Amino acid sequence: MAHHNTLIYLTLLAITSFVAHATDPTQLQDFCVGVNDPKNALFVNGMFCKNPMEATPEDFLFNGLDIPRNTNNRLGSNVTLVTATQLPGLNTLGISLARIDFGPHGLNPPHTHPRASEVLTVLDGTLYVGFVTSNLPNGGNKLFAKVLNKGDVFVFPQGLIHFQFNVGDTPALAIVGLSSQNPGVVTIGNAVFGAQPPISVDVLSKAFQLNDKLIKYLQSVFGTSQ
To answer: What domain of life (predicted)?
Structure first.
């Protein structure tokens, strides 16, 4: 019995250790304001770090997130990211955020964040949102979706495909928080049909069970057709 308990303990320790190391690295000082020029840096932690004695309040400030963005594009949406690139004081803190503007019936298309979970708050309008699980034991994928109104909050787990769609006839607005200073984004349609050089038509037609002509059309829409 003692051996069995020890094995369970070691297994749990291994799992928790893996989870603890599956996020952004912990900072090694109070803050590490990112700089582009290594000549101005003293430390390296995610990005080159400014001398902390030379940091200013402006290093921790981002202006303009209240300004509506242009949604006049084919998707009718616009994402304004605030990561360590835009706000150097975020470097090593393991968080970032974004503003998402939606025109009427605008869409933030299916995508993933390989390094972050996301929490979304609707500030205005009505959004239909959802995420899809990774492959289940039975080979399926379950959709978790809800219609959100002003003040509602929804969470998208790290790495899972998710989307947001404005179901209203008026603009909508959301703010999202992300659990990484550099969450990354993989837009599914762009990645699959917009890769350069293009993924083989034979591969995509078999994967999606579509004819070659339709695959080539999709590649032309996403800009990979030669």
So the answer is: Eukaryota
CA-CA distance, 164 to 166, in Å (whole number)?
7
Known binding residues for oxalate are: 108, 113, 118
Please, what is the end-to-end C-alpha distance for the chain in angstroms? Answer: 66
CA distance 158 to 172: 24
Helix (H) or strand (E) holding 78: strand 77-82
Q: How far apart are CA 218 and CA 132, in angstroms?
A: 23
| Binding-site positions for Mn(2+) | 111, 113, 118, 162
Q: Which residues define the annotated binding site?
A: 108, 111, 113, 118, 162
Q: What is the pLDDT of residues 84-111, one digit of tens each?
A: 889 999 988 889 999 999 999 999 999 9
Residue pair 116/178 in contact by the 8 Å Cβ criterion: yes
The SS3 assignment for 59 reads helix
- Evaluate if residue 16 carries a pLDDT over 90: no
